[in-house]
Amino acid sequence: MAQPEASHPVQHDHAGTPHRPIKISILVSDCSNNGLSRAVTLAHALSQSHTVELLGPATDGDIWFPLRHTSIPITTFRWRRFPLFFNTIRQMLAQIDGDIIVACKPRITSFGVGLLKKWGSGTPLIVDIDDWELGFYHRSGIWQQCKTIIQGLDLSRPSSLPYLWLMERLLNAADAITVSNAFLQQRYSGFVLHHCRDTTILNPTRFDSDSAKISLSLSGKYVVMFLGTPREHKGLNDLLNAMQRITNPDIQLVIVGAEKHDTHLETATRQLGGRATILPKIPYNEVARHVAAADVVVIPQHRSSQTRGQTPAKLFDAMAMAKPIIATTVSDIPEVLHDCGYLVEPGNVQQLAETIEYVCTHKEEATQKGKRARERC
Q1: CB atoms within 10 A of CB 68
Q2: What residues have CB less than 8 Å from 220, skipping those under 6 apart?
Q3: Looking at the DSSP assignment, which residues form a beta bridge with residue 296?
């Protein structure tokens, strides 16, 4: 799956002596899921002045669908249970040849491998943390927590809880830490590096909203868009319930990123009649065209252990495209959307419905907020 590596001009020091660009090896915890997104974003930013490669195991043997055509070379390795995974680790260590290693997520499949390389070769290691991984084990309900923890104690799985706990204990062995939000900085220290976006690609002047709506069979509709894989903690059920309280037939909910054959989602949207459109996962190079069709983007995160240490990356897609945004007061969202978005309390369905209707009837105000959001992005 690796693609040709981008070439870089030979660099020179102050004395005019040529030297090769620094090479950065970015280790991905799992190339088959959305954790790849942050890694690719960092890779694109770093590739402007450095040689960059992405490496990591892939649980389903393939690269995560939205990023299969990224221009950054990606080398995947077979995902196996321990003890067979030791052979995968050996193969990864032989492949890593960067001058600097960036390990995305404090997982044994990325940070653990990076530590072994650092200890064996002295290569500097940075760990990038974009989620509170242990927070996913603190789910609501005692039975759900017990089930999650029991599953996480399977030591044959590289992603199991004990290995994650061990990796967090070893974070001080990294040469530097970067994090995606203030909660993670408070917990792990390090430098805050928000999700970044290339605003030359995500540029609203390159797309016509009416044409984008026509291409998605949404002509004449006021489009309320939800981006990303539907998950309980992302608050999609709150948005569906809010839409049921809105009677304007021209307000259309569009969900982009649904899993195939999501029967729960299909059942829930059926209650809205024809006022809901479900679209599957899309390649990342299609995101701008889809967001162009939105009149408002809604990010209704719940407040939970899963979202406390998470800032949604799709927030920055919407900001880059100058879209009005309605989001909940979770994590760093209030700071990021300061004076350029609409904030509601998580779980407040009535407030969410009223805010959607307000934005729909105050289009000029919403447009100005969208422009400020892009400037801030």
Answers
A1: 15
A2: 213, 250
A3: 224
